[in-house]
């Protein structure tokens, strides 16, 4: 009897494996339709934002395009679905989008209970507060009794509550569904301060009538590792999205850019570079991709430094320093496993 039960369990396990293998993977679905569908924010300059002609740009947009470049050799084979914080996880769970690239914080609960997997971190951030300079506030510890605007369905709400509770201060939350609504409430004077990730504060400040009239307070009250999210259970797809990011970090370490990648692929004798660019071995086959998939990511989208500088760097309206997002070799925490 014991033996028969074992047989039944083994048969069931085999059947389940065959069934899972027969189901179309995300990669197969994406190849069949000819593009990657990415969920992005409703508009955060530097991360995912559309211009008046509907052209999207930003760090999160480039994360989507890097995945498209890896699969198709064409970063433009990406489409974007703008989502509120409240909508984003449902859109991914339901299959409306293939990957969520929407400045989303990796947390224990989100990773463990939503049927989703986080991939590589493409921006390390932390929550802060923005106030009018005229308010005379210089520290978040001066915010006792403040009215605070924020977006619904975010870790920001929870962090805000924790911060005020920890410091035994009172506050009045003004919680709205969309980030732009929170900014509009702040701009109209409905609240004293606006809170979100510090990168988001810098991005939203650039949209105010007089950005110089507003200050981002010094305190950082949380850890906010941001990055793409995929559905749980498709390891191949998770690996593709993850390594599309890791390739950009490795390329920066090796001083490979979108401008010199063709020359380096042709001339380099460095085994690590040859593996990365598909000139030696066939790393792409392990992901179900072409041998030159990583080369295409770099050529089409650039290395991590290029992505950072053109979207949120000091020369952009967002104007962020590299800070903690520097490479690990330069005092930051940006680090990628080797391609070997």
TrEMBL record:
<protein>
    <submittedName>
        <fullName>Amino acid ABC transporter substrate-binding protein</fullName>
    </submittedName>
</protein>
<feature type="signal peptide">
    <location>
        <begin position="1"/>
        <end position="22"/>
    </location>
</feature>
<dbReference type="InterPro" id="IPR001638">
    <property type="entry name" value="Solute-binding_3/MltF_N"/>
</dbReference>
<feature type="domain" description="Solute-binding protein family 3/N-terminal">
    <location>
        <begin position="35"/>
        <end position="264"/>
    </location>
</feature>
<keyword id="KW-0813">Transport</keyword>
<dbReference type="GO" id="GO:0006865">
    <property type="term" value="P:amino acid transport"/>
</dbReference>
<dbReference type="InterPro" id="IPR051455">
    <property type="entry name" value="Bact_solute-bind_prot3"/>
</dbReference>
<dbReference type="Pfam" id="PF00497">
    <property type="entry name" value="SBP_bac_3"/>
</dbReference>
<keyword id="KW-0732">Signal</keyword>
<comment type="similarity">
    <text>Belongs to the bacterial solute-binding protein 3 family.</text>
</comment>
């Amino acid at each position: 009897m014991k033996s028969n039960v074992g047989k039944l369990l083994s048969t069931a396990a085999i059947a389940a494996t065959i069934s899972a293998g027969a189901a179309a993977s995300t990669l197969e679905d994406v190849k069949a339709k000819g593009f990657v569908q990415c969920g992005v924010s409703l508009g955060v300059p530097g991360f995912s934002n559309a211009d008046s002609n509907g052209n999207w740009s930003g760090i999160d947009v480039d994360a989507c395009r890097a995945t498209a470049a890896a699969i198709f050799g064409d970063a433009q084979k990406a489409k974007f679905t703008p989502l509120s914080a409240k909508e984003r996880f449902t859109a991914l769970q339901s299959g409306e989008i293939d990957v969520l690239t929407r400045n989303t914080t990796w947390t224990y609960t989100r990773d463990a209970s939503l049927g989703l997997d986080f991939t590589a971190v493409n921006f390390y951030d932390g929550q802060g507060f923005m106030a009018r300079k005229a308010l005379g506030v210089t520290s978040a510890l001066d915010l006792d009794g403040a009215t605070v605007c924020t977006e619904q369905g975010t870790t920001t709400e929870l962090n805000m509550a924790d911060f005020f509770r920890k410091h035994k201060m009172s506050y009045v939350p003004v919680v709205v569904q969309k980030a732009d609504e929170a900014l509009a409430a702040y701009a109209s004077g409905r609240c004293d301060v606006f809170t979100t990730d510090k990168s988001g504060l810098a991005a939203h400040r650039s949209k105010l009538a007089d950005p110089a009239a507003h200050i981002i307070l010094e305190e950082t009250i949380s850890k906010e590792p941001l990055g793409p999210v995929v559905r749980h259970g498709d390891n191949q797809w998770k690996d593709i999205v993850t390594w599309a990011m890791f390739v950009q970090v490795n390329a920066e370490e090796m001083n490979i850019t979108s401008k010199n990648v063709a020359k380096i692929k042709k001339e380099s004798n460095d085994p690590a570079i040859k593996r990365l660019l598909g000139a030696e071995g066939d790393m792409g086959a392990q992901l179900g991709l072409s041998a030159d998939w990583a080369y295409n990511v770099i050529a089409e989208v650039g290395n991590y430094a290029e992505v950072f500088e053109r979207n949120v760097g000091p020369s952009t309206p967002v104007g962020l320093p590299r800070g903690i997002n520097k490479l690990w070799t330069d005092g930051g925490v940006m680090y990628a496993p080797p391609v070997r």
